[in-house]
Design a protein that fits this description.
Low-confidence stretches: none
Helix content: 25-40%
Shape: globular
Largest sheet: 5 strands, mixed
Strand content: 15-25%
Number of strands: 5
Number of helices: 4
CATH architecture: Alpha-Beta Complex
Mean pLDDT: 89
Radius of gyration: 13 Å
CATH superfamily: Protein tyrosine phosphatase superfamily
Number of domains: 1
Order of helices and strands: EEHEHHEHE
CATH class: Alpha Beta
Strand order of the largest sheet: 1-2-5-3-4
């Protein structure tokens, strides 16, 4: 689930989801468990969320949208909507936004994407 891209600075991996049903609605308990693991086991303080609107709809059961829910739970968040399953994964403009977010957000942080 979590893996360091740059040790103790940048982690990456999939968004909170149900493993056997990655395209189904994600319950609050799954998001809460994901956030707890990110904080307690990895010390994650910030999240760069790369989910597009279609993916964000999978979190309708939260009290707010996913990005706001992350913030309410103490994370710094940058949201850069990226369409899923495209090649290349990030266009130059998106990559520039990710880099700017990386430079300004508190580390360590997590970059979330849809499951591959």
């Amino acid at each position: 689930m979590f893996r360091w891209v740059i040790k103790e600075q940048l982690a990456g991996g999939p968004r909170p989801r149900l493993r056997k049903k990655p395209c189904s609605q994600v319950p609050k308990s799954t998001v809460d468990a994901w956030m707890k693991k990110a904080k307690t086991e990895f010390g994650i303080r910030s999240i760069i969320c790369l989910l597009d609107e279609q993916q964000l709809r999978l979190y309708a059961g939260l009290q707010s949208d996913l990005v706001s829910y992350y913030r309410k739970n103490g994370f710094q968040v940058a949201h850069i909507p990226v369409r899923n399953y495209k090649h290349p994964a990030l266009f130059d403009q998106e990559l520039e936004k990710v880099w700017k977010a990386y430079e300004r957000l508190e580390k360590p942080f997590w970059s979330t994407a849809a499951p591959a």
